[in-house]
């Protein structure tokens, strides 16, 4: 029984060899992979910078209209698809989740970038003219260096410069000291645990125990960091997984309820409708 949608595991997409990094011209990439218009996941980080184009890009069931000077970030496991109009231009970057681990002492370094968290609130940025120009120049240079077979650490350094420049110039809501504070670390660890255990653990107190803090403290951190209580984050993750499974028409609603550890189909349907405003069957019709 197939229980998931396609997962692309190779940064090169159609390449025969496994490579940890791909930096490419967007128009050429789309032309080469023009059949990939079905919902799919990546096992790597993926971001797209648009210099031109029209159409839409859907990430975890949220549809975005494409505009020039935008950048979209996707974390491993997110579901996405595109509907381009054939006039797209820009850059595409794929890199493995462990791409920097042999390069940086802090193996959790990528946690500092909120736009790589997989949160829809952070996945899209409209770049100002100066940032757009600088990022385009860096990515153009990165493509050239990659084609010339530059040393891997040079490529890593260049990509890290791109990520750091975007973070520094895009004016995140919280000051840098708050984004890299103890509470920020707790928050990111909580999100990581939710991704790993949302099927079996649905209560904030269960995660608070794993983090060695009180449920009240966990709620306070979540509210301070993104304005939502911990319980809401857990429920949103369950709903997201349900939506991802509902795309697979081979699975019945009862099978999805079982996969998500609901007591029965009825309870799952009530939960899903309360969170989304639609029954699972209605959601399937909307996404067909």
UniProtKB/TrEMBL annotation:
Domain HTH araC/xylS-type: 188-286
InterPro entries, sorted: AraC-bd, Homeodomain-like_sf, HTH-like, HTH_AraC, RmlC-like_jellyroll, Tscrpt_reg_AraC-type_HTH
Residues spanning the membrane: none
The organism's taxonomic lineage, starting at the top: Bacteria, Pseudomonadati, Bacteroidota, Sphingobacteriia, Sphingobacteriales
Domain of life: Bacteria
Keywords, comma-separated and alphabetical: DNA-binding, Transcription, Transcription regulation
Protein name: AraC family transcriptional regulator
Annotated GO MF terms: DNA-binding transcription factor activity; sequence-specific DNA binding
Keyword Cell membrane on entry: no
């Amino acid at each position: 029984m197939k229980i998931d949608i396609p997962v692309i595991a190779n940064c090169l997409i159609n390449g025969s060899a496994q490579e940890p990094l791909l930096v490419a011209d967007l128009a050429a990439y789309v032309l080469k992979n023009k059949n990939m218009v079905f919902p799919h996941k990546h096992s790597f980080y993926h971001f797209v910078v648009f210099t031109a184009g029209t159409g839409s890009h859907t990430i975890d069931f949220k549809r975005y209209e494409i505009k020039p000077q935008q950048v979209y970030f996707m974390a491993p496991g997110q579901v996405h698809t595109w509907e381009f109009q054939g006039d797209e231009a820009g850059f595409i970057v794929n890199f493995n989740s462990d791409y920097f681990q042999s390069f940086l002492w802090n193996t959790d370094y990528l946690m500092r970038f909120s736009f790589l968290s997989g949160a829809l609130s952070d996945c899209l940025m409209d770049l100002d003219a100066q940032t757009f120009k600088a990022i385009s120049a860096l990515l153009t240079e990165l493509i050239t260096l990659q084609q010339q077979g530059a040393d891997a650490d040079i490529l890593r350094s260049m990509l890290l410069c791109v990520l750091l420049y975007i973070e520094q110039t895009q004016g995140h809501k919280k000051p840098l000291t708050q984004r890299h504070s103890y509470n920020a670390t707790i928050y990111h660890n909580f999100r990581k645990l939710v991704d790993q255990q949302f099927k079996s653990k649905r209560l904030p107190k269960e995660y608070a125990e794993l983090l060695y803090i009180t449920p009240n403290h966990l709620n306070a951190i979540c509210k301070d960091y993104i304005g939502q209580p911990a319980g809401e984050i857990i429920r949103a993750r369950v709903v997201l997984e349900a939506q991802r499974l509902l795309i697979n028409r081979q699975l019945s609603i009862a099978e999805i309820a079982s996969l998500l550890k609901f007591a029965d189909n009825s309870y799952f349907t009530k939960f899903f409708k309360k969170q989304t405003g639609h029954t699972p069957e209605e959601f399937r019709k909307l996404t067909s």
